[in-house]
């Protein structure tokens, strides 16, 4: 039976009793968490013991009107433990059951089981539990753990990651993303050339017209009508 040590924290809300107990154990609090905007969603991070222990949080998909930057808005998505030195291992303590950063692979397999996925190229081993993936980078030549990563695969975390990917691709509109309480990415403006339909149409020069002459005749007729009486009197006097 796997212990509910750090494994039980992954996927929990940041204001859950389990996470609060973790904060208390390591003499820290939510105020020490750094909040920042990731690729598309608001994320948070807490590093302890010279980055030997790091917690990653993501913002819940809640309506914007309810979103603040409080612990209740975030879910613990992953815990990563890097093996720097023995003193860090002593501070961190047991990670999953009796597994520590100083544990050997045989001890790990006894606790997590022999049903694991191995990536020989990366030197990693992966165990999957309900909603949690345990990934361990283990150097068999030196019998040493480089890091242990506990990450959540819960439906809520998966949904947040899908929204993050969609926002990064610009699929969701800005209004839709704001309704979810998340920050859309700042997409760079690109000026794309526009091809007009008549770019390749041959140009035909218009022949000069007699429009000026027609206008002159019209003005002459108007003037004749206005001064008709004067012109008639002049002609009668001449005759």
Specify the overall morphology.
Answer: rod-shaped
Q: Briefly note the structural class of the backbone.
A: alpha+beta
Low-confidence runs? none
Number of strands: 8
Question: Largest sheet at a glance?
Answer: 8 strands, antiparallel
Q: Tell me roughly what share of residues is in helical segments.
A: 25-40%
Strand order of the largest sheet: 1-2-3-4-8-7-6-5
Gyration radius, rounded: 38 Å
Mean pLDDT score: 80
Portion of residues in beta strands equals 15-25%
- What's the tally of helices? 7
Cα(first) to Cα(last) distance is 134 Å
Q: Helices and strands, in N-to-C order?
A: HEEEEHHEEEEHHHH
Keywords: Membrane, Transmembrane, Transmembrane helix
Descriptors:
single chain; 239 residues; alpha+beta; rod-shaped
Please sum up the structure shown.
The protein has 239 residues and is of the alpha+beta class. It has helices at residues 17-25, 86-92, 105-112, 155-168, 174-179, 211-226, 228-238, and strands spanning 34-37, 42-48, 53-59, 74-82, 117-119, 124-129, 132-139, 144-152.
Report on this structure.
The chain has 239 residues and is of the alpha+beta class. It contains 7 helices and 8 strands. It has an 8-stranded antiparallel sheet with strand order 1-2-3-4-8-7-6-5, covered by helices on one side. A hairpin with a 2-residue loop joins strand 6 and strand 7 (132-139). The model has no long low-confidence stretch (mean pLDDT 80). Keywords: Membrane, Transmembrane, Transmembrane helix. The chain crosses the membrane at residues 210-228.
